[in-house]
Write a structure and sequence with these properties.
The complex is a heterodimer of chains A (274) and B (304). Helices cover 18% and strands 36% of the residues of chain A. Chain A has helices at residues 82-88, 124-136, 183-193, 196-200, 210-222; strands at 7-19, 23-30, 41-45, 56-59, 62-65, 71-78, 95-102, 114-120, 141-147, 167-172, 179-180, 202-207, 226-230, 246-251, 254-259, 266-268. Chain A has a seven-stranded antiparallel β-sheet with strand order 4-3-7-1-2-6-5. Chain A has a seven-stranded mixed β-sheet with strand order 11-10-9-8-12-13-16, with helices on both faces. In chain A, a hairpin with a 3-residue loop joins β1 and β2. In chain A, α3 runs parallel beside α5. Chain B has helices at 79-92, 106-117, 139-142, 145-158, 174-183, 222-235, 249-257, 268-271, 275-289, and strands spanning 7-9, 12-14, 18-20, 42-48, 61-64, 67-70, 97-101, 122-128, 162-166, 188-191, 195-198, 200-201, 206-207, 213-217, 240-243, 262-265. In chain B, the strands form four sheets. An eight-stranded parallel β-barrel of chain B has the order 3-4-7-8-9-10-15-16, surrounded by seven helices. In chain B, strands 5-6-14-11 form a four-stranded antiparallel β-sheet, with no helix packed on it. In chain B, a hairpin with a 2-residue loop joins β5 (61-64) and β6. In chain B, α2 packs parallel to α4 (145-158), α4 (145-158) runs parallel beside α5 (174-183) and α7 (249-257) packs across α9. In chain B, 59% of the residues are buried. The model of chain B has no long low-confidence stretch (mean pLDDT 95). The chains are: A alpha/beta (274), B alpha/beta (304).
Chain lengths: 274, 304
Amino acid sequence: MSHSRMQFVAGKIVRNEGHGEIFYRLEAAVPEPVEFEPGQFAMVSGWPGNDPLLPRPLAIFRAGAAPKGKGTVEFVYKVVGRGTALLSGMHPGESLSLTLPLGRGFDLVKDGRLYWLVGGGVGFATVFPAAAALGRRRTEYEMFLGSRTREQLPPKEWTPGGSSPGRVHLCTEDGTAGYFGQVTDTIRERMAALSDADASRLTILACGPREMLKEIALAASARGAEMQAALENHMACGFGVCWGCVVALREGDQIAYRRVCKEGPVFDAREVVW
Amino acid sequence: MNPDLSVSLGRLRLKNPVMSASGTFGYGLEFSPFYDISRLGAIVVKGLSLAPTPGNPPGRIVETASGMLNAIGLQNIGVERFIEDVAPRLSDAGATFAANIYGRTVEEYESVAVRLSELSSLAAIEVNASCPNVKEGGMAFGATPEGISHLTARVRKATGKSLWVKLSPNVADIAAVAAAAEGAGADAVSLINTIVGMAVDHRTRRPKLSNVTGGLSGPAIKPVALRMVWEVCRRVKIPVIGIGGIQTAVDALEFLLVGASAVQVGTANFRNPRACVEILEGVETFLREERLTGISEYRGKLHL
């Protein structure tokens, strides 16, 4: 039986390999298959000792079935601090603790929408599962991937395929691959070229640096397009009890602090106080 | 034979000494996916105020060496919604639960206590006289024996429930503060709350917390907590609830050994959602291995 209910499980590393300049791909065997919504995440730890103390939030990249009713779950992460550095040094066979699946993922239920997926930096790891889900149900989409340089783009073979693969646009700030410039520049250009009718049925699904999300959110809102932004934050627990990861949201004429781990990580970009 | 894990906190008997610490366990039900929360000695829910509280702006937590700083600012749903929505579900789950309370004024503490007293399912009220992250309330009352005595006496008059007073370590003499709580009618004291700390970013030159300072918790504070619990146990006759960096059954046993009647597990819940129940199982296993019939044969038996 697979579970989409939150669980705390012991996992075993199957592989944990570096790719390109900065990405690691981690696969763990877990007791049973995991069902997740694209955009959901896991809290992951496994290094010995109390320092660093807290598990790290990682977007679920893929999950599948393994022999004997067991499951497998994959993550793509970037080394950004001591926790991810320690994780990157762990080997196949070593144990992990995982709490998953967590949070609220992308809302992909609407039909008749025009989908643009945007991944900035390691943000692609959060939007690829959404692309895969759209591809599986033959919904067309376009995907924009941005990075500083060519070596920091995801390996081509990771791009979701399926029966209806979307068109992928690469953007690099140094011009070594695809569009020469930031992903926000190309989004703004494409947005300006949209008809009003297309703009109103556009849904943008995005994950990446906060500045990138903010700029796209402003551009989307100016054209009446919808945007779902997957936010990141430091977290202690990941399942809604520490209240440490809040983001300010506009709710009517009030500002409320909502948990990235519980009410998010995917939020309606129009509500976020950028 | 199974050892007797039950403990007495004044008039209140708990089935075992392992509780969750306020602010680290939500309202309790969040942990139901991980285990049967009725197994715990008690659940202490997140600090409740008279009205819902929005809490501090983001920049609320920072990880530090073997610990973390928080400045959540007591964001909570307010006492009315707790009574209406949460308490019935905790009862349905079979959980024993206590409510941590705080106010901006002594009158607010009283009002929250009065309101909660009507809740027959509530086991105890824990007065938070020690939150370092809000300007009013908490620390303002908990910093001196006189302040704690006044607050405790007023809440004591407002409720017939078991009354615990949660103490701050950010004081000159915590045993004197504990004695003041005892003198004013507390049924138990719980300690320690977090230790005030700070973290800054050397490049951006800014504090890492929006509140600038925050409360340190986790294994980093355990030796300080253990020392303070030991000091307080030698000073007061009422039961002492030990809190501070407890992550394992061994940590919990150490607090019992220096005299605590029960323990609360806090930050460990963030890292391991099953921490409380694993600690409970570990304590039971230890007593069985040592062939002890109950907690009382071990509690306070430190050889000096």
